[in-house]
Amino acid sequence: MERTFVMIKPDGVRRGLTADILAIFLRKGYRLLGLKLMRISRELAERHYAEHQGKAFFEPLLAFMTGGPVVAMVLAGTDAIATVRTLMGATDPAKAQPGTIRSMFATAVTENVVHGSASPEDAEREIALFFAPGELLAGPA
Ligand code: ATP
Ligand code: MG
After folding, report:
1. Do residues 72 and 78 make contact, with C-beta atoms less than 8 angstroms apart?
2. With a 6 A CB cut-off, is 12 part of the ligand 1 pocket?
3. For the segment 34-62, what is each residue's pLDDT rounded down to a tens digit?
4. Which listed ligand is nearest to 7 at the C-alpha?
5. 3-class DSSP state for residue 5?
6. Which residues are catalytic?
7. For position 79, which CATH number holds?
8. Ligand 1: residue whose CA is nearest its atom 20
9. How far does residue 92's CA lie from ligand 2's centre (Å)?
């Protein structure tokens, strides 16, 4: 079992997609260890996306991510990091496989509805950025 950090981005929350996206992950069978609706500060957005600092899309990305509430969650399951990324689809919705969340719900790379950790290191770093240990259920036994 593995933990991953997932976020429904401001466009997904604003468009009323929270329940649909959550249902996809829960029906798949991941265990929900933490869940919250929150506004993210510029500082948190900068730290979360630190790998993209200096890129042309960095400032617009920060403006987008701080522009409305997000739904942050921690999911656990077998190979959760990779399988969540597969369910999400490619970064650019135009290139996402049919049936994936980004293919079904998004049309622009800049507003692609959902985030998922890319590696075990990213997952633990991102979980710690968004959740205090006491806000999470214990990991799967
Ligand atoms: P995320 O980290 O949000 O799950 P990702 O891992 O699929 O997405 P990254 O390469 O980490 O993709 O990019 C982070 C986000 O920055 C993307 O989700 C997208 O919204 C935005 N982004 C990435 N590349 C571009 C680009 N070329 N032009 C505009 N926005 C981009
Ligand atoms: Mg990424």
Report:
1. no
2. no
3. 999 999 999 999 999 999 999 999 999 99
4. 1
5. strand
6. 115
7. 3.30.70.141
8. 110
9. 12
* Centroid of ligand 2 to alpha carbon of 1 (angstroms): 21
Asked if residue 120 lies in contact with residue 81, where contact means CB atoms within 8 angstroms, the answer is yes
Q: What is the pTM of this model?
A: 0.97
Distance CA(45)–CA(59), nearest Å, equals 10
Q: Print the domain residue range for 10.
A: 2-41+69-135
Q: Say how many domains are in the chain.
A: 1
* Cβ pair 6, 73 in contact under 8 A: yes
Residue 14 has a pLDDT of 98
Q: Is the CB of 35 under 6 A from ligand 1?
A: no
Mean pLDDT, residues 55-74? 98
Give the mean pLDDT of the chain: 97
Tokens linked to 30? 């991941």
